[in-house]
């Protein structure tokens, strides 16, 4: 007999007639009395997990457990523009912060520290905000325009909220939708990175350099997700090459 079983038997065999000073211990004694009255079950304990609808099952589900410990809400309309297959996690994370307006842009820094410089590091606009940085700033708009104008054509916009809406709906075709989502996320990450580099005194890069770097990043991503054993051409990569002129 194991030590645990011995301790359980000892607990149930000893009855305390005196009251405890702590009410919690008195409640424990009450529950023990209930078990003594109906007899100690000699069978083995069974571990059960709480699942959907409060039902208990012997099968563990990480999804059900996660839903038990969080507050469930309806999915946001923009989630498909942030979290999608073949995205790059660090890009998605920066976009997620931008969607919630939680990046430490100049307007936020001024709220935390009155002495902080809120100007845009790229164009010297008086206030650097999320919507200014992505992509109405004269510097960042060049990068965004060079990468997307030939894809979006008449739908081209530099408004962050309009871009996010476009990335989240189904108005774009399959390959165009993925390319635009990836370009949007890679551009947001690259611009935020360049912004931080300049804030810390590093050598600035011109818009053309950022554009070339992003072009290479997109090409590499489109190449990496194409099945090398496939006999069909990589249509997404072909489309991207065509858009680059």
TrEMBL record:
Record protein name field: Reverse transcriptase zinc-binding domain-containing protein
Superkingdom as given in the UniProt entry: Eukaryota
Organism from which the protein derives: Cardamine amara subsp. amara
One Pfam family named in its UniProt record: zf-RVT
Location of the Reverse transcriptase zinc-binding domain: 60-144
